[in-house]
Amino acid sequence: MSAPAIRLNHIAFGPPAARILDHIDLQLDAGHFLGIVGPNGAGKSTLLHIICGLIEPDEGHIDLFGECLSRNSRKRLLGQLRFLPQRQDGIAAMPIRVHHVVAMGLNAAHGPLWRKNPQRDIIEQALERTGMAAHADTDFRALSGGQQQRVRLARALVASPRILLLDEPAAALDSPAQDKLYKLLRKLCDEMQMAIVMVEHDIAAISDYVDSVACLNRRIHHHAMHGETIPEQVWHDMYGDHMHVMAHDAHCIGCESNEGVPNDAAPHESTPHKHTPHGTGT
Fold first, then answer.
1. Confidence (pTM)
2. Is 186 helix (H, G, I), strand (E, B) or coil?
3. Phi and psi at residue 136, in whole multiples of 5°?
4. Which one of 140, 160, 180 terminates a domain?
5. Distance (Å, whole) CA 238 – CA 220
6. pLDDT of residue 229
7. Rounded Cα–Cα distance for residues 279 and 239 (Å)
8. CA-CA distance, 76 to 67, in Å (whole number)?
9. 137 lies in which domain range?
10. Does 257 lie in the same domain as 178?
11. Count of domains in the chain?
12. Which CATH number covers residue 177?
Protein backbone atom coordinates (compact mmCIF):
# COMPACT_ATOMS: atom_id res chain seq x y z
CA MET A 1 0.00 0.00 0.00
CA SER A 2 1.44 3.34 -1.06
CA ALA A 3 1.98 6.16 1.41
CA PRO A 4 -0.48 9.09 1.47
CA ALA A 5 0.35 11.98 -0.85
CA ILE A 6 -0.11 14.43 2.05
CA ARG A 7 -0.23 13.88 5.79
CA LEU A 8 -0.49 16.80 8.18
CA ASN A 9 0.54 15.93 11.71
CA HIS A 10 -0.66 18.21 14.56
CA ILE A 11 -0.05 21.39 12.53
CA ALA A 12 -0.33 24.68 14.44
CA PHE A 13 0.50 28.21 13.33
CA GLY A 14 0.40 31.52 15.17
CA PRO A 15 1.01 32.51 18.81
CA PRO A 16 -0.37 30.04 21.39
CA ALA A 17 -2.89 32.58 22.67
CA ALA A 18 -4.24 33.38 19.20
CA ARG A 19 -3.76 30.44 16.88
CA ILE A 20 -4.49 30.91 13.20
CA LEU A 21 -4.38 27.14 12.78
CA ASP A 22 -4.48 24.67 15.65
CA HIS A 23 -4.07 20.89 15.81
CA ILE A 24 -4.59 20.18 12.11
CA ASP A 25 -4.46 16.47 11.28
CA LEU A 26 -5.29 15.53 7.71
CA GLN A 27 -4.45 12.75 5.28
CA LEU A 28 -4.87 12.81 1.51
CA ASP A 29 -4.23 9.86 -0.80
CA ALA A 30 -3.22 10.00 -4.45
CA GLY A 31 -6.18 10.71 -6.72
CA HIS A 32 -8.23 12.32 -3.94
CA PHE A 33 -9.93 15.67 -4.57
CA LEU A 34 -10.37 17.63 -1.33
CA GLY A 35 -12.35 20.84 -1.00
CA ILE A 36 -11.73 23.17 1.96
CA VAL A 37 -14.45 25.59 3.07
CA GLY A 38 -14.67 28.07 5.91
CA PRO A 39 -15.28 31.74 6.82
CA ASN A 40 -12.99 34.70 6.22
CA GLY A 41 -9.87 34.46 8.35
CA ALA A 42 -10.34 30.72 8.95
CA GLY A 43 -6.75 29.94 7.94
CA LYS A 44 -7.56 28.27 4.61
CA SER A 45 -4.93 30.08 2.54
CA THR A 46 -2.44 29.79 5.39
CA LEU A 47 -2.89 26.03 5.38
CA LEU A 48 -2.13 25.85 1.65
CA HIS A 49 0.97 28.00 2.17
CA ILE A 50 2.15 25.62 4.88
CA ILE A 51 1.64 22.53 2.70
CA CYS A 52 3.60 24.02 -0.18
CA GLY A 53 6.44 25.17 2.08
CA LEU A 54 5.93 28.94 1.84
CA ILE A 55 5.22 29.11 5.59
CA GLU A 56 6.78 26.96 8.29
CA PRO A 57 4.35 25.73 10.97
CA ASP A 58 5.03 26.59 14.59
CA GLU A 59 4.16 23.05 15.64
CA GLY A 60 3.76 19.71 13.90
CA HIS A 61 5.20 18.46 10.64
CA ILE A 62 4.22 17.57 7.08
CA ASP A 63 4.77 14.26 5.30
CA LEU A 64 4.70 14.20 1.51
CA PHE A 65 4.60 10.77 -0.13
CA GLY A 66 5.50 9.18 3.18
CA GLU A 67 8.57 11.32 3.81
CA CYS A 68 8.89 14.16 6.30
CA LEU A 69 9.25 17.59 4.71
CA SER A 70 12.58 18.83 6.05
CA ARG A 71 15.50 21.01 5.06
CA ASN A 72 17.19 18.07 3.33
CA SER A 73 14.10 16.77 1.51
CA ARG A 74 12.43 20.11 0.82
CA LYS A 75 13.60 20.75 -2.75
CA ARG A 76 13.00 17.20 -3.93
CA LEU A 77 9.54 16.81 -2.38
CA LEU A 78 8.21 20.27 -3.21
CA GLY A 79 9.35 19.76 -6.80
CA GLN A 80 6.43 17.34 -7.11
CA LEU A 81 3.89 19.94 -5.97
CA ARG A 82 2.39 22.99 -7.67
CA PHE A 83 0.37 25.84 -6.16
CA LEU A 84 -2.05 28.24 -7.88
CA PRO A 85 -2.48 31.14 -5.42
CA GLN A 86 -5.54 33.33 -5.11
CA ARG A 87 -3.69 36.47 -6.13
CA GLN A 88 -2.65 35.89 -9.70
CA ASP A 89 0.52 37.21 -11.30
CA GLY A 90 0.76 40.21 -13.59
CA ILE A 91 0.89 38.15 -16.77
CA ALA A 92 -2.62 39.27 -17.74
CA ALA A 93 -1.20 42.72 -18.57
CA MET A 94 1.82 41.45 -20.52
CA PRO A 95 2.00 41.05 -24.33
CA ILE A 96 2.86 37.35 -24.20
CA ARG A 97 1.61 34.30 -26.07
CA VAL A 98 -0.10 31.41 -24.36
CA HIS A 99 2.62 28.82 -24.97
CA HIS A 100 5.20 31.16 -23.42
CA VAL A 101 3.04 31.46 -20.30
CA VAL A 102 2.90 27.68 -20.01
CA ALA A 103 6.67 27.39 -20.59
CA MET A 104 7.23 29.39 -17.40
CA GLY A 105 6.24 26.28 -15.49
CA LEU A 106 9.30 24.41 -16.72
CA ASN A 107 12.51 24.61 -14.73
CA ALA A 108 14.47 24.66 -17.97
CA ALA A 109 12.42 27.47 -19.49
CA HIS A 110 14.78 30.38 -20.05
CA GLY A 111 16.28 32.38 -22.88
CA PRO A 112 14.67 34.65 -25.48
CA LEU A 113 10.99 34.01 -26.17
CA TRP A 114 11.57 33.87 -29.93
CA ARG A 115 13.67 30.72 -29.65
CA LYS A 116 11.89 27.39 -30.01
CA ASN A 117 11.54 25.73 -26.63
CA PRO A 118 13.08 22.23 -26.72
CA GLN A 119 10.24 21.05 -24.46
CA ARG A 120 7.51 22.33 -26.76
CA ASP A 121 5.94 18.84 -26.89
CA ILE A 122 5.40 18.93 -23.11
CA ILE A 123 3.85 22.38 -23.41
CA GLU A 124 1.52 21.23 -26.17
CA GLN A 125 0.45 18.21 -24.13
CA ALA A 126 -0.42 20.43 -21.15
CA LEU A 127 -2.43 22.76 -23.38
CA GLU A 128 -4.19 19.80 -24.95
CA ARG A 129 -5.10 18.41 -21.55
CA THR A 130 -6.60 21.74 -20.46
CA GLY A 131 -8.42 22.26 -23.75
CA MET A 132 -6.30 25.25 -24.76
CA ALA A 133 -4.16 23.75 -27.57
CA ALA A 134 -5.95 25.82 -30.24
CA HIS A 135 -4.89 29.00 -28.40
CA ALA A 136 -1.16 28.22 -28.11
CA ASP A 137 -0.15 31.25 -30.21
CA THR A 138 -2.89 33.56 -28.91
CA ASP A 139 -2.04 36.69 -26.94
CA PHE A 140 -2.77 35.78 -23.32
CA ARG A 141 -4.50 39.14 -22.81
CA ALA A 142 -7.14 38.25 -25.40
CA LEU A 143 -8.42 35.24 -23.47
CA SER A 144 -11.45 35.14 -21.22
CA GLY A 145 -11.03 34.73 -17.46
CA GLY A 146 -11.84 31.04 -17.65
CA GLN A 147 -9.39 30.48 -20.50
CA GLN A 148 -6.63 32.32 -18.65
CA GLN A 149 -7.18 30.14 -15.60
CA ARG A 150 -6.88 27.02 -17.78
CA VAL A 151 -3.59 28.33 -19.15
CA ARG A 152 -2.31 28.90 -15.61
CA LEU A 153 -3.33 25.35 -14.82
CA ALA A 154 -1.45 24.12 -17.90
CA ARG A 155 1.60 26.02 -16.62
CA ALA A 156 1.37 23.96 -13.43
CA LEU A 157 0.84 20.68 -15.29
CA VAL A 158 3.98 20.89 -17.45
CA ALA A 159 5.98 19.95 -14.36
CA SER A 160 3.90 16.73 -13.98
CA PRO A 161 3.07 17.42 -10.31
CA ARG A 162 1.70 14.71 -8.05
CA ILE A 163 0.01 17.29 -5.80
CA LEU A 164 -1.90 20.39 -6.90
CA LEU A 165 -3.00 23.14 -4.49
CA LEU A 166 -5.50 25.80 -5.59
CA ASP A 167 -6.75 28.84 -3.68
CA GLU A 168 -10.23 29.79 -4.93
CA PRO A 169 -9.35 29.16 -8.60
CA ALA A 170 -12.90 29.88 -9.77
CA ALA A 171 -13.43 33.13 -7.84
CA ALA A 172 -13.53 35.36 -10.93
CA LEU A 173 -15.31 32.89 -13.23
CA ASP A 174 -18.96 32.63 -14.21
CA SER A 175 -20.89 29.45 -13.46
CA PRO A 176 -20.27 27.63 -16.80
CA ALA A 177 -16.53 28.39 -16.60
CA GLN A 178 -16.46 27.18 -12.99
CA ASP A 179 -18.04 23.88 -13.98
CA LYS A 180 -15.53 23.37 -16.79
CA LEU A 181 -12.65 24.01 -14.42
CA TYR A 182 -13.98 21.65 -11.74
CA LYS A 183 -14.59 18.92 -14.33
CA LEU A 184 -11.02 19.29 -15.54
CA LEU A 185 -9.67 19.01 -11.99
CA ARG A 186 -11.81 15.91 -11.40
CA LYS A 187 -10.37 14.40 -14.58
CA LEU A 188 -6.81 15.08 -13.41
CA CYS A 189 -7.51 13.19 -10.19
CA ASP A 190 -9.04 10.23 -11.98
CA GLU A 191 -6.66 9.90 -14.92
CA MET A 192 -3.35 11.06 -13.41
CA GLN A 193 -3.96 10.06 -9.78
CA MET A 194 -3.12 13.62 -8.81
CA ALA A 195 -3.99 14.68 -5.26
CA ILE A 196 -5.77 18.03 -5.30
CA VAL A 197 -6.51 20.40 -2.41
CA MET A 198 -8.78 23.30 -3.37
CA VAL A 199 -10.02 26.15 -1.20
CA GLU A 200 -13.46 27.34 -2.29
CA HIS A 201 -16.17 29.48 -0.75
CA ASP A 202 -19.27 27.62 -2.01
CA ILE A 203 -19.68 24.00 -0.98
CA ALA A 204 -22.62 23.59 -3.37
CA ALA A 205 -20.56 24.54 -6.41
CA ILE A 206 -17.91 21.88 -5.81
CA SER A 207 -20.06 19.04 -4.50
CA ASP A 208 -20.35 17.19 -7.80
CA TYR A 209 -16.59 17.00 -8.18
CA VAL A 210 -14.77 16.62 -4.86
CA ASP A 211 -14.30 13.39 -2.89
CA SER A 212 -14.52 15.11 0.47
CA VAL A 213 -14.92 18.51 2.15
CA ALA A 214 -12.93 19.74 5.16
CA CYS A 215 -14.72 22.38 7.26
CA LEU A 216 -11.99 24.68 8.55
CA ASN A 217 -11.99 27.52 11.03
CA ARG A 218 -8.71 27.49 12.94
CA ARG A 219 -9.14 23.73 13.24
CA ILE A 220 -10.90 21.12 11.13
CA HIS A 221 -14.38 20.92 12.62
CA HIS A 222 -15.51 18.13 10.32
CA HIS A 223 -14.17 16.18 7.34
CA ALA A 224 -17.12 14.93 5.28
CA MET A 225 -16.75 12.24 2.65
CA HIS A 226 -19.02 12.27 -0.40
CA GLY A 227 -22.55 11.36 0.63
CA GLU A 228 -22.04 12.24 4.29
CA THR A 229 -24.22 14.78 6.05
CA ILE A 230 -22.43 17.51 7.98
CA PRO A 231 -24.15 18.12 11.33
CA GLU A 232 -25.73 21.56 11.56
CA GLN A 233 -23.79 22.25 14.74
CA VAL A 234 -20.57 22.16 12.69
CA TRP A 235 -21.75 25.14 10.63
CA HIS A 236 -22.72 27.05 13.78
CA ASP A 237 -19.33 26.28 15.30
CA MET A 238 -17.59 27.68 12.22
CA TYR A 239 -19.81 30.63 11.35
CA GLY A 240 -21.65 31.48 14.56
CA ASP A 241 -25.10 32.89 13.90
CA HIS A 242 -24.33 33.87 10.31
CA MET A 243 -26.40 31.11 8.77
CA HIS A 244 -29.52 31.02 6.67
CA VAL A 245 -31.41 28.62 4.42
CA MET A 246 -30.66 28.78 0.71
CA ALA A 247 -32.02 26.93 -2.32
CA HIS A 248 -29.58 24.97 -4.43
CA ASP A 249 -28.75 21.39 -5.37
CA ALA A 250 -30.26 18.83 -3.02
CA HIS A 251 -27.42 16.37 -3.71
CA CYS A 252 -24.78 18.75 -2.34
CA ILE A 253 -22.12 17.02 -0.27
CA GLY A 254 -22.65 17.47 3.44
CA CYS A 255 -26.11 18.99 3.09
CA GLU A 256 -29.22 18.23 5.05
CA SER A 257 -32.32 18.27 2.86
CA ASN A 258 -35.66 19.55 4.06
CA GLU A 259 -38.12 16.95 5.37
CA GLY A 260 -39.60 14.89 2.56
CA VAL A 261 -36.82 15.66 0.09
CA PRO A 262 -34.31 12.82 -0.45
CA ASN A 263 -30.59 13.55 -0.33
CA ASP A 264 -30.13 11.53 -3.52
CA ALA A 265 -32.33 13.82 -5.61
CA ALA A 266 -31.43 14.15 -9.26
CA PRO A 267 -28.35 16.28 -10.01
CA HIS A 268 -29.02 19.99 -10.36
CA GLU A 269 -32.51 19.66 -8.89
CA SER A 270 -32.88 22.91 -6.94
CA THR A 271 -34.44 22.29 -3.53
CA PRO A 272 -34.42 24.38 -0.35
CA HIS A 273 -32.14 22.82 2.26
CA LYS A 274 -29.84 23.87 5.03
CA HIS A 275 -26.15 24.43 5.40
CA THR A 276 -24.88 27.42 3.50
CA PRO A 277 -23.59 30.11 5.88
CA HIS A 278 -23.58 33.78 5.05
CA GLY A 279 -20.17 35.34 4.49
CA THR A 280 -17.38 33.09 3.28
CA GLY A 281 -13.95 33.49 1.77
CA THR A 282 -10.30 32.93 2.49
1. 0.82
2. helix
3. -55, -35
4. 160
5. 9
6. 85
7. 8
8. 11
9. 89-160
10. yes
11. 2
12. 3.40.50.300
